[in-house]
Design goal:
By secondary structure, the protein is an all-alpha fold. It is 73% helix and 1% strand.
């Protein structure tokens, strides 16, 4: 059989199409529920499908994976509760659009951008898998450390009018991210002898509390807030709108593919990086970022779905998972007698191209299921606050408990909700706090690993200038720092002019 015949396998076996469709449909609604992630869904499918025929099991898992990554945008836009970590950046501009009555438009844009991002990820997987995988293998611990520093440089872009407030919120996140057992020495840190603190802080629990519960508390204390009537007359974006944002879509999707191919990075970091990139490069958005800018949806939604194709690249070519979901899928393939790695494309090329084909088909079903039911979904925002806010808190409790089946996670979630309420009340952004928790492990582990490999801190710093990848990342960080400083100066000058005018 040639490549073309391998790609047509799902079309010659209609049952595979059904499994992909069912997976996408289920994944969208699983992803929309805070705490129910793609990783959890695929993990459950491994035990559910181990007796199935291999192609059917893979088709269902891929459908759920694609649908769940997109599904997180729905609750992010409608309720300001990211259904998945990859949707944190989506909430920053998606929710303000819903508050203006444009939830239908926001969900339409999120759907089309997710589809385009998925397709670009599929093309990258099919055409450039060996090339991208070789690039990913060249990333050292120093490079991952610099990538983490780049992430921390985004605090000025994540909903903060003051870089210092963003840094303080991020510092709180980093501090909370160090709670638990040290990953290298197994020494408990900041646990105060409490056993439940040993596993550390789950950033999904933190995300639910900081975004969902805090928003409910803010709205409870705000009197006479009326539900906003949503305009759902036009959900599907026009062709001109899609063309307008194609350059940003392509840039964000390519970043998503590369970041997705880095082991341990994933769609959440890709979405945050591209949101920051969009905020820096888009000169004249319709409205400022953080207030409902369309560009603030285009970038992260393109990137997090493009990262799916990227995550499969190291998994299939080297046997190294790109993210948590592909780590689970390696286990699933092993159960079915397959071994992802360098020999996969030569020994079982049909499996490689089956995955490519199923990802393409999943993107088609994402259009169908993503754009249907939008009018019903947008009615959530119009529910009276007296009914909606308790539902948000109940949903947050259920989602937090479902992650580890632990009551202690509910307490963490409520604690983060209260923290988020006070942060918002005093105009501190909550997104950098989540970012700090997410990046703590990446920063700490690679910093310490880099010191062990280079024997000293000066040698670690010197190694940055001996590697082309490290040098490029370092230059990017310098540019980001410079623009952050210039942005702060402009903000300070504008603030002084405003005071003078008063």
């Amino acid at each position: 059989m040639d490549i073309f015949q391998y790609l047509l396998i799902p079309f010659t076996h209609p049952l595979l199409l059904v499994f992909v469709a069912v997976g996408v449909f289920a994944g969208i609604y699983i992803g929309a529920i805070p705490g129910l992630s793609a990783t959890m869904a695929v993990s459950l499918l491994v035990s559910f499908t181990f007796g199935w025929e291999t192609n059917q099991a893979i088709a269902l898992m891929i459908g759920v994976y694609v649908g769940a990554v997109y599904g997180g945008s729905r609750s992010a836009i409608l309720l300001n509760i990211p259904g998945a970590p990859a949707a944190v950046a989506t909430a920053l501009d998606g929710y303000p659009m819903a508050q203006r009555g444009e939830a239908g438009r926001a969900m339409g844009i999120a759907t089309t951008q997710s589809v385009i991002g998925t397709l670009i990820g599929v093309v990258a997987l099919a055409c450039f898998a060996p090339l991208v995988s070789q690039l990913a293998t060249k990333f050292s611990s120093v490079d991952y450390l610099l990538l983490g520093v780049m992430g921390m440089m985004m605090v000025g872009s994540l909903g903060s009018k003051s870089i210092f407030r963003g840094l303080l919120a991020a510092a709180i996140g980093v501090l909370l991210g160090t709670v638990g057992m040290d990953t290298m020495t197994a020494v408990p840190r900041f646990t105060f002898g409490i056993t439940y603190l040993l596993p550390g802080v789950n950033y999904v629990v933190a995300m639910i509390g900081l975004f969902g519960v805090s928003e409910a508390l803010v709205q409870i204390t705000t009197k006479d807030v009326q539900a906003v009537k949503q305009n759902v007359s036009k959900i599907i974006p026009s062709l001109d709108t899609i063309k307008k944002y194609i350059p940003l879509t392509l840039r964000s999707s390519l970043v998503g593919v590369v970041v997705g191919a880095l082991p341990g990075a994933g769609g959440d970091i890709a979405a945050l990086l591209t949101y920051d990139q969009a905020k820096r490069t888009v000169k004249n958005p319709e409205v400022p970022f953080g207030q409902g800018a369309v560009e603030g949806l285009v970038a992260p939604e393109s990137a997090n779905n493009a990262a799916i194709g990227g995550a499969f690249i190291p998994m299939l070519t080297m046997g190294i998972p790109g993210d948590a979901v592909t780590a689970v899928m390696i286990g699933a393939l092993t159960i079915h007698g397959l071994k992802p790695g360098p020999n996969l494309m030569t020994t079982t090329p049909d499996l490689f191209y089956l995955i490519v084909s199923c990802l393409f088909i999943a993107s088609i079903f994402l259009v169908i299921f993503g754009l249907t039911g939008v009018k019903i979904f947008t009615k959530i925002v119009e529910i009276p606050k007296g009914i909606l806010l308790p539902l948000i808190i109940i949903l947050s409790v259920v989602g937090s408990y479902a992650i580890n089946n632990s009551l202690f996670d509910i307490f963490w979630m409520l604690g983060f909700g209260i923290l988020g309420y006070f942060l918002k009340r005093f105009e501190y952004p909550v997104a950098p706090c989540v970012l700090g928790i997410i990046l703590t492990t990446l920063l700490e582990e690679n910093y310490r690993r880099g010191i062990l490999l280079n024997k000293s801190i000066p040698a670690l710093v010197g190694s940055i200038f001996t590697s082309p990848i490290s040098l490029i990342l370092f230059v990017v960080i310098v540019v980001m720092f410079t623009t952050q400083t210039q942005g702060y100066k402009k903000w300070k000058a504008k603030r002084e002019l405003t005071k003078a005018a008063k």
